[in-house]
Design a protein that fits this description.
The protein has 272 residues and is an alpha/beta fold. The protein has a single domain, classed as 3-Layer(aba) Sandwich (Rossmann fold). The protein is globular, with a radius of gyration of 19 Å.
Length: 272
């Protein structure tokens, strides 16, 4: 088994953010996790990356419980498990290449990093990755000078610089316009297909999950309420995930959707 999540729970005091979550992946795939804000999606990804400790349960990757790792072993796992964030998490005043090279920080000395000194081979690899993502011409520019979509591709390039076994993307397109969102999702899908890497992405619209994912998990109040193929995301499944009352008419449901915060609007695709 490639990835096995077993009864994983995260509690913040009396609040249960992730509640007894279990699922397994037997091969690399593009997995989408959908749900309202507060459903537990981001907390779950942070546990996989070990940015947040779990309260209970196990997460096994290739048979090894990553929740039990400590010290150097945990840092090595974090190098193999790259994280892409909604707000890019770049260093705005640094050039694009340096930001990509930060993907190698786990294997570099603090002094070399502080002096911005990088091996030539690493610089060439970073430029090759940027070229692959279609933004090599942006390499000498400051990250803050780029558009949101370009910055997110720089963040993806930084993740690839780690040569990860798994890529976690936490709402990678939530702050992007539709055109840049498509470019970023196309990029992540291509990385999965060409490199054979597992990609797990938290997403906020059903149409995105249907278009790009091999499998979709729906979370509500910390629990998995849907686990299936994209084409199985019916109106009823969407209501289970997002909490619309079954007695709602389609028009009433649409009105309720529009009243939700932007990142909870699961879309006109729900009624497609």
């Amino acid at each position: 088994m490639l990835l096995s999540v077993e009864n994983v729970t995260k509690a913040f005091g009396r609040n249960i953010a992730v509640d007894n979550v279990s699922f397994a992946l037997d091969r690399p795939m593009f997995l989408g996790i959908i749900g309202r804000s507060g459903a537990g999606k981001s907390t779950f990804l942070r546990m996989v990356n070990r940015l947040t400790d779990a309260t209970a349960g196990r997460i096994l990757f290739e048979g090894r419980d990553i929740l039990a790792l400590r010290g150097a072993a945990m840092r090595t796992w974090q190098a193999h498990c790259a994280m892409i964030f909604q707000q890019f998490n770049l260093v705005p005043r640094l050039d694009v290449v340096s930001n990509v090279l930060h993907g190698t920080l786990n294997r570099r000395s603090t002094l070399a990093t502080a002096l911005n000194l990088w091996p030539r081979d690493d610089i060439l690899k970073a430029i090759d990755i940027l070229d692959r993502l279609g933004i090599a011409e942006q390499a000498p520019k400051r990250a803050e000078a780029l558009s949101g979509g370009q910055q997110q591709r720089v963040a993806i390039a930084r993740a690839l610089m780690q040569d990860p076994k798994i890529i976690l993307a936490d709402e990678p397109i939530a702050s992007l316009d539709p055109m840049n969102a498509q470019i970023v999702m196309d990029t992540l899908r291509r990385i999965h297909e060409e490199d054979g890497r597992t990609v797990i992405a938290n997403l906020h619209t059903l149409d995105t999950a249907r278009r790009y994912c091999d499998r979709v998990i729906g979370m509500r109040a910390g629990r998995i309420v849907f686990d299936g193929l994209p084409e199985q995301l019916t109106t009823g499944a969407a209501r289970d995930i997002y909490g619309a009352d079954d007695s709602f008419s389609e028009s009433a449901t649409s009105t309720a959707i529009e009243a939700l915060p932007r990142d909870d609007q699961y879309a006109k695709a729900m009624l497609a």
